[in-house]
Amino acid sequence: MEHIHKVIIVLLILALIFAVAAVTMASTFFDFKTWSFKEKLFLFLQFSWWQLRAQL
């Protein structure tokens, strides 16, 4: 069980890093600052959920 938890934590960290990189790249194409915090959070949670489902 412990091993599975470590893998999930690593995946979440990688997803966070990827999300930050994607947001940084996206902000050069359109003004990301106009998005509300809730929209950004929702998008990130959706992305994280999709990433986890892809791994399982």
Shape descriptor reads elongated
- The overall number of domains is 1
Helices, by number, come to 2
Largest sheet: none
Helix residue percentage? over 70%
| Termini gap | 15 Å
Radius of gyration: 13 Å
Number of strands: 0
Q: How is the quaternary structure best described?
A: single chain
Low-pLDDT residue spans: none
Share of β-strand residues: under 5%
Find the structural class using helix and strand composition: mainly alpha
Overview features:
mainly alpha; elongated
Q: How do the helices and strands line up, and which of them pair or pack?
A:
Blueprint: H1 2-29, H2 37-55
Helix pairs in contact: 1-2
Report what the structure shows:
The protein is mostly helical. It has helices at 2-29, 37-55.
Could you give a short description of this structure?
By secondary structure, the chain is an all-alpha fold. It has 2 helices and no strands. The protein is elongated, with a radius of gyration of 13 Å.
